[in-house]
Amino acid sequence: MDLRGRKITVHDMSLRDGMHAKQHQISIEEMQTVSQGLDDAGVPLIEVTHGDGLGGASVNWGFPAASDEEYLRAVIPNLKQAKVSALLLPGVGTVDHLRMAADCGISTIRVATHCTEADVSFQHIKLGREMGLDTVGFLMMAHMIEPDKLVEQALLMESYGANCIYVTDSAGYMLPDDVAARISLFREKLQPETELGFHGHHNLSMGIANSLAAVEAGANRIDCACGGMGAGAGNTPMEVFVAVCDRMGIETGVDVFKIADVAEELVTPMMDFPVRIDRNSLTLGYAGVYSSFLLFAKRAEEKYGIPARELLLEMGRRKAVGGQEDMIEDMALTMAKERKASQ
Amino acid sequence: MSKKLRAAIIGSGNIGTDLLMKAMRSEWIEPVWMVGIEADSEGLKRAKDFGIKTTAGGVDGMLDQVIADDIRIAFDATSAYVHADNSRKLNELGVIMVDLTPAAIGPFCIPPVNLKAHAEKLEMNVNMVTCGGQATIPMVAAISQVQPVDYGEIIATVASQSVGPGTRMNIDEFTRTTSAGVEQVGGAKKGKAIIIINPAEPPMVMRDTVHCLTADEPDQAAITRSIHEMVAAVQEYVPGYKLVNGPIFDGNRVSVFMEVEGLGDFLPKYAGNLDIMTAAGLRTAEMLAEEAASGRIELPIRNVA
């Protein structure tokens, strides 16, 4: 693989996807310290919101330590070079949230839908573009459909005005060939000026390999999380990916030692538990299950006595999509009732 | 004289057709007109086959016959964009409008919660909120009828195949209208609505989760009783409305997990979200008919030429 001279944008997820691993409890001060560390290390783009995007604050997913607006207003003015993005899931966040985030000074809005449902992103992508934001379409759980179906959805988002489209491996299920097949078809069918991105989860330890496959196939934006702090076994670890890129001659603009220091000194100490591949996060990647279901399944195991792995596998069998965390408690209750009845 | 109120259905798509099939079985409503905009549409053809009068000229195509045909109720299953016009034209002729679009120019109507109040006031336009609202607001109301609810949150998960292009192009309208309904009709101080679309095959049956945060410690026995009563009230018009789990109590959180299966008249059974809209719309019209027949309300006076 010869990728010498390629320039890519690494996009940090530790303060957004990492919110899942922190049950959305990252403090304002931690947001500021980490984002400034990332800024100093040369990370060009940092995502900041509730783990489930703008408006994600809920009983369902958890109330965050501060509001999206408080986080954005606390982070953005203190950055020297890095820009900030926000995530928005139509059906959760609305154009009102988008307007608020734009007012806070985000440069990028990422509109995320399940991989078959791109048409719900119409009004948000259109508005993002009209407001002059860098507007990204984010196709989640992209392993669930074949590349030829996925590209149809990508074309819809592009037609609404998205200037960048992501293949999002929300379950950390894909292997490098799956990533390459999707990105290269996107490259073939989308406008040449449309940027392509890849968002990985490290549930099968494929974050780095998949991201490189994406770059080789034509992606120029790669999501990583400093310290690997994200849902499931985390996202592609930023410091590792940057080091590999450095060795391969791919230009990220990020300083290897500085980003490694941020991971070691700022992000890792924040973690409530080691974000790593254990039997449950492995199950996510192995069975193709949405990564942020992890902690919900663990809590249901504690409360109702059904092993988290069984709950995750059942969510996979029922083809649950991102956001369906409420089904985990419901299912655990039903399974616990059935088990009691059969005893 | 028949006790049935004569009705027009505007919109000959899936919702209008499903509503027609339900209305044809009703003891209180007699569907007379099906209004469409495309002469060769399947919906109009089907209505004609059922022996219903049809027009492809929109509401204007039937206005001159509203009085002669004694039309008293109209169901609007078109879109928010044309609803205001339809409603104005028919209200002028003394026709009560049941609005199944997201236009929401009239007050929200969730039958087991506030239909009686609307009927008594003879509201000329009532809005059926959203599918997610019809499925969940009764549960929020069941809790807030027992004690104050600071916060009500609903998560509606629906099959991709049951979400039409209108909803998709303006999904914010769903979240806004539903959360407003959770507050105004459900009685929560603050409301929040989330919609999740799932494309699984075979399509999943609509499921809904309701979380309420009560102001004080929840009275478990009273809330449980109230929820079971409310489920039974909704089951009168949506037999497939099912309490799957709950109420679960965790501190001040009260959670309920529901499933809504449709009757499968015209829409498939999994599309409980659409079925509960047509069933609630019809239930609304039926109650008006019952109230009018018993003399408890007076329909708009009409001088028949």
Quick rundown:
Chain A is an alpha/beta fold and 343 residues long. Chain A contains 14 helices and eight strands.
Kindly describe this structure.
- The complex is a heterodimer of chains A (343) and B (305).
- Chain A contains 14 helices and 8 strands.
- By secondary structure, chain A is α/β, with parallel strands linked by helices.
- Chain A folds into 2 domains: 9-270, Aldolase class I (TIM Barrel); 279-342, Helicase, Ruva Protein, domain 3 (Orthogonal Bundle), CATH 1.10.8.
- Chain A has an 8-stranded parallel barrel with strand order 1-2-3-4-5-6-7-8, surrounded by 7 helices.
- In chain A, strand 3, helix 4 (95-104) and strand 4 (108-114) form a beta-alpha-beta unit.
- In chain A, helix 2 (28-41) crosses helix 3 and helix 7 packs parallel to helix 8 (207-217).
- Chain B is of the alpha/beta class.
- Chain B is built from 9 helices and 11 strands.
- In chain B, strands 3-2-1-4-5-6 form a 6-stranded parallel sheet, sandwiched between helices. Chain B has a 5-stranded mixed sheet with strand order 8-7-9-11-10.
- In chain B, helix 1 crosses helix 9, helix 5 runs parallel beside helix 7 (171-184) and helix 5 (131-144) runs antiparallel to helix 8.
- Chain B is globular and about 60 Å long.
- Classes of the chains: A alpha/beta (343), B alpha/beta (305).
- Chains A and B meet through helix 14 of A and strand 7, helix 6, helix 7, strand 8 and strand 9 of B.
Shape of chain A: globular
Average pLDDT taken over every residue of chain B: 95
Uncertain stretches of 5 or more adjacent residues of chain A: none
Q: What about the largest sheet of chain A? A: 8 strands, parallel, barrel
* CATH architecture annotation of the largest domain in chain A: Alpha-Beta Barrel
Described by strand count, sense and barrel closure, the largest sheet of chain B is: 6 strands, parallel
CATH topology of the largest domain in chain A: TIM Barrel
Radius of gyration of chain B: 19 Å
Number of domains as seen in the coordinates of chain B: 2
Which blocks of ≥5 consecutive residues of chain B have pLDDT under 50? none
* Percentage of residues in helical conformation of chain B: 25-40%
Helix content of chain A: 40-55%
CATH superfamily of the largest domain in chain A: Aldolase class I
Strand order of the largest sheet of chain A: 1-2-3-4-5-6-7-8
Tally the structural domains of chain A: 2
On the 0 to 100 scale, the average pLDDT of chain A is 98
CATH homologous superfamily (4th level) name of the largest domain in chain B: NAD(P)-binding Rossmann-like Domain
Q: Kindly, what is the distance between the CA atoms of the first and last residues of chain B, rounded to a whole number of angstroms? A: 18 Å
